[in-house]
Amino acid sequence: MKTALLLWLGLVLAAKADVVLPSILASDMVLQRETEVAIWGWADPTEKITVTASWDNRAVSVTGGADATWKIRLRTPKSGGPYAITVKGNNTVLLTNILIGEVWLCSGQSNMALTAAGGVKDARAELPTAFNPNIRFFKMDRRAAATPQIEVGGSWAVCDSVSLKRFSAVGYFFGKKLQTALGVPIGLIDLSWGGSKMDTWLPESLVNLYPETCHSGRTMVKTPWAPNVPGVLFNGMVVPITSFVIAGVIWYQGESNRHYAPAYDQLTRLLVESWRSHWQNDFPFYYVQLAPYRYGGTFETALVRENQTKAMAIPKTGMVVTTDLVDNLDDIHPVYKKEVGNRLANWALAETYHQKVEPYKSPQYRSMQIVGNRIRLSFDNAQNGLMAKTGPITEFEIAGADRIFTKAQARIQHNTVEVWADGVEKPLAVRFAFRDAPEPNLFNQAGLPVIPFRTDNWELGLDRQGND
After folding, report:
1. Which residue segments constitute the domains of the chain, with CATH numbers given?
2. Helix (H, G, I), strand (E, B) or coil at 369
3. Is the pLDDT score of 2 beyond 90?
């Protein structure tokens, strides 16, 4: 693929001696505010390229390299626009209707990719009033490649009923809330791929670096709708845009990594670290925990969720819990995405933009204390107390030395929960919502669901499957 692209560029440049820009640099785009952004492309070797942005009308020149590439950097102003950028070499390229604001990457698999056209009901409801010239979408073409690429297709569009219909609903609702709260233009880049595995979004060399991640990469399930070779989406879709400055990443993925859940925490760390390294930017990374769904497995999904919770230890990350946002446990794609996007936006507004927002962190298990035949659990992010939204508290299990878990009763005491079960006189461990499709009803007073957890570290019977 890379050879073909280089050949195409060579033919274009040889035939026309034209300046060529990548797809990500185009009219209607949003550039990150108050930073240095790159403008780059291809031209004849030794050709003089001059770039002028209308916000300061300062001409910046560079000479094309021997490999026919060039790159310059422009300092962007505070938010605003529209602006124009003129790129002049042997030909002239004019980019118009450019805004300066905040740019976020929206990545993952199908629940990030899902659109109004794909069945998201609250996104469909937005279509009649969707027009917002201060929100722009870049919808990237899906490309897998064995080697790092220099270009990937896609196009920018102003948010309206046509462009929104086929853009990430989670990304849109995230961006809409940011745009309203910050009052600046928002650019959203959708590079999601339904059914994709995290291993494919990483450099292959990193997947092969550790035994657990290597095993995950070697045992990915083959499907007809997504590649299963480590690194190919990183090469085809991530590498070509790492020169484009972004504010951060939102991520919704994990369903396709149930094949070897123990590796998910390490894979997440490698993905965040490698993307930050390639962008040379310690940007925030906010992600969505897997929603409940009847997969029909044992503890694979619960273990992915557990590893997603562990990944919050990575600096500048945050996790949205969705156990209360599923309308049908037999549909892997919940058809309402507004609250998912809003919860992600609250993390960004609080942690990245330092704005005062409603509570945005779900309650998280902190510690336990055995008191007679009961276990008392303490939680973070429940300062004002916990509540059960409907009826008795659900989804608690308790076990003793036999490690056999029994459905438990539970009682709230402000921000602690007391758990017990008849017949378990000497309890040792508690699990909460620790299965494929839980239906928990325990929340903090702000209405955010408690993160699924277990207090034990007992073997789950999910030893390595497949062959190395």
Report:
1. 2-98 (2.60.40.10), 102-352 (3.40.50.1110), 364-454 (no CATH)
2. strand
3. no
